[in-house]
């Protein structure tokens, strides 16, 4: 083996070591960023992935994506990130704010949470969207106001925009008028 061969091998080993160190540093930066974000509030895996993929690193986009997925897998394994925990808190908050299941489902889908998870959370939390719709209708409208058909249509659209189904809105109207 000649001197030039050993120099090339040393350079190759050195560049591989530099690359491994760079990957390790990038992984550490991503993990610290993710933990920092999770320390403030819950995030879905998709949201966290979006945020981690915007972090400026000295690696290729493909490697950043691979490292961020590895970080997310590690955080899930450690229990730091959970889509179920995120969805549970999100659904509770939105339901208490007077939003219906259709709107909540749409927002959760945008945040990358599966519809099945929403159904599980609603069942576990025992959220009654019929009662939430009735409470919102009672707080927002009076009997006299809803006696007029055009005002009822406005109320119906308002409730539908809040994410309540037709059955939930009809139930709310019946509750307001004291019908069974």
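Sequence proposed for the structure above (180 residues):
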């Amino acid at each position: 083996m000649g001197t030039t061969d050993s120099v090339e091998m040393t350079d190759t080993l050195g560049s591989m070591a530099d690359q491994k160190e760079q990957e390790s540093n990038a992984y550490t930066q991503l993990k610290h960023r993710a933990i920092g974000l999770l320390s403030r509030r819950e995030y879905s895996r998709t949201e966290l992935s979006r945020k981690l993929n915007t972090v400026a690193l000295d690696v290729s986009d493909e490697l950043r994506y691979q490292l961020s997925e590895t970080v997310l897998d590690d955080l899930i394994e450690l229990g730091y990130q959970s889509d179920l925990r995120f969805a549970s808190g999100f659904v509770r908050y939105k339901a208490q704010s007077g939003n219906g299941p259709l709107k909540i489902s749409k927002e959760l889908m945008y945040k990358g949470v599966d519809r099945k998870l929403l159904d599980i959370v609603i069942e576990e939390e025992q959220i009654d969207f019929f009662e939430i719709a009735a409470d919102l209708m009672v707080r927002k409208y009076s009997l006299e106001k809803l006696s007029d058909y055009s005002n009822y249509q406005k109320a119906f659209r308002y409730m539908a925009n809040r994410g309540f189904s037709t059955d939930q809105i009809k139930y709310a109207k019946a509750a307001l008028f004291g019908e069974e």
